[in-house]
């Protein structure tokens, strides 16, 4: 089974690191036990999964993930103006602060303060990695047939 390649219907155990263009690591589990996921289970974005297709146990790779296969391009519609009085009066706002907002479905949506004045706060709801090309460094430890549930 060592010849099984990553594709639909496989379960993968790996270590990974997400690295920005400047070389800084955004996320890694190389300092931890490997993670496992089944292709298509939603653990990884589809573009990250597709980049792994064809790799097998024992492979190491550095994969480039363009924005359209990662976190997408920033969308101007995701930048919103919110009345300043919607924020707690005691809150000292700063550019780059992250707040959690309720979305229409009752879930939480993070937003980053881009700018503010006495009347309004400009909040960016785009993913912080939107528009970024990422390097996805992986070490594949195991590839097996995924169990169907």
Shape: elongated
Q: What CATH architecture of the largest domain would you give?
A: Roll
Strand composition percent: 35-45%
- Stated plainly, the CATH topology of the largest domain is called Chitinase A, domain 3
Mean pLDDT value = 93
Top CATH class of the largest domain: Alpha Beta
Beta-strand segment tally: 9
Low-pLDDT windows of residues: none
Provide the helix percentage: under 10%
Number of DSSP helical runs? 1
**Distance N terminus to C terminus?**
21 Å
Helix-strand topology string? EEEHEEEEEE
Task: Provide structural commentary.
The structure is a single chain. With 149 residues, this protein is mainly beta. It has two domains: 79 residues, Chitinase A, domain 3 (Roll); 49 residues, Beta Barrel (Thrombin, subunit H). Helices cover 5% and strands 40% of the residues. Strands 1, 2, 3, 4 and 9 form a five-stranded antiparallel sheet that branches. A four-stranded antiparallel sheet has the order 5-8-7-6, with no helix packed on it. The longest helix is centred in the first third of the chain and has 7 residues. It starts with 9 loop residues before the first strand and ends with a strand. The model has no long low-confidence stretch (mean pLDDT 93).
Question: Short summary of the structure?
Answer:
By secondary structure, the protein is mostly beta strands. Helices cover 5% and strands 40% of the residues.
């Amino acid at each position: 089974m060592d010849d099984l390649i990553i594709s639909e219907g496989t379960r993968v155990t790996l270590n990974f690191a997400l690295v920005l263009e400047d070389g800084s690591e955004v996320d890694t589990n190389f300092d931890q036990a490997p993670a496992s996921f089944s292709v298509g289970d939603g653990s990884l974005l589809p573009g990250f999964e597709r980049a792994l297709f064809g790799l097998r146990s024992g492979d190491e790779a550095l994969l480039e993930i363009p924005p359209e296969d990662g976190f997408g391009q920033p969308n101007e519609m995701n930048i919103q103006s919110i009345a300043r009085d919607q924020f707690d009066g005691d809150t000292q706002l700063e550019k780059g602060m992250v707040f959690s907002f309720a979305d229409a479905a009752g879930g939480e949506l993070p937003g980053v303060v881009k700018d503010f004045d006495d009347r309004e706060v400009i909040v960016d709801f785009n993913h912080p990695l939107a528009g970024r090309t990422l390097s996805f460094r992986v070490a594949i430890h195991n590839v097996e047939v995924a169990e169907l549930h």
